[in-house]
Design brief:
4-stranded antiparallel beta sheet
Length: 279
């Protein structure tokens, strides 16, 4: 476990989110309180429509809460910022640019201009190139750097998306089901690679997932949301498995199975029971 896990790096305080629709106001989230420590890997899991992506977008600053507050590194989140990078399920690459150019675009945006708030000077082209090359190397894409998105596989596209996020040296990496559209073998390979990347970068990660095994394998903490509408946090499960983690060794691990069963019980027994009562 990370040595900083006692810190309140991200704080979500009394957050609620509603949306105006043609049928009236839709309550997506209510009474969300959560602390995320520096260097912690947190999975958000729950049934479709429970507000997982909504909560991730709030942390990213892509939307503003109806009530409550979100704080990152002692500063209120009021909008997007380079300290919080997002990897979407759809890789969102520019198809006319190469893998290198897609990553370089983000590097240039963050480090190619002087930052008046921190007093950091703009970096030169050699420095920007070095950052881009390092990000592509981190995800194993150096050989494909000059290929365009249409020339590479879905898994490789997601690696470019991860490289583009990591090149900005974010304090927080936000991932919205980044492996959801991939086949099982590619998904497993990228999960293993993500474990290695996070170990190297010591990033704070918040990931939305529907996959119980993915949540247990990757996470320090699993945040289970109740069914929507007006979803909230139903339970938080701490995953105390030593790192580095090996999926083959964990397959027969009793503690791993205990965590897996706890999540399945919440999702498919307790929440199903609640759904029947409210139907």
């Amino acid at each position: 476990m990370n040595e900083h896990l006692n810190e309140k790096f991200i704080q979500i305080q009394g957050v609620a989110q509603t949306f105006k629709t043609a049928k009236g106001v839709f309550p997506a989230l209510r009474d969300v309180d959560l602390n995320i420590a520096k260097g912690e890997f947190v999975a958000l899991i729950g049934h479709s429509g429970c507000g997982k992506s909504t909560l991730l977008n709030l942390i990213a600053g892509l939307t503003v809460p109806t009530s409550g507050a979100l704080i990152c590194a002692n500063r209120e989140i009021k909008g997007p910022g380079p300290e919080r990078a997002v990897v979407f399920q759809n890789h969102s690459l520019l198809p006319w640019l190469t893998c290198y150019e897609n990553v370089y675009l983000a590097v240039e945006r963050v480090f190619g201009a002087a930052n008046k708030s921190t007093g950091v000077n703009a970096e030169n082209k050699a420095q920007l190139k070095a950052r881009t090359d390092a990000a592509l190397a981190l995800v194993g894409l150096t050989p494909a750097a000059q290929k365009r998105p249409g020339e590479i596989s879905g898994g490789m596209k997601q690696r470019v998306g991860i490289a583009r996020a990591l090149c900005m040296e974010p304090k927080v990496l936000l991932m919205d089901e980044p492996f959801g559209a991939l086949d099982a073998l590619t998904r497993a390979k990228l999960q293993d690679e993500l474990l290695q990347i996070v170990a190297k970068t010591q990033s704070t990660v918040v990931m939305v997932t529907h996959d119980v095994d993915e949540a247990v394998l990757l996470s320090d903490k699993i945040v289970m949301l109740t069914n929507g509408p007006a979803a909230t946090i139903g339970e938080v499960l701490s995953v105390d498995l030593p790192r580095p983690r090996n999926r083959v060794q964990l397959a027969d691990d009793s503690q791993y199975q205990h965590y897996r069963k706890a999540v399945i019980d919440f999702l498919y027994t307790r929440q199903a029971h609640v759904e029947k009562l409210t139907a």
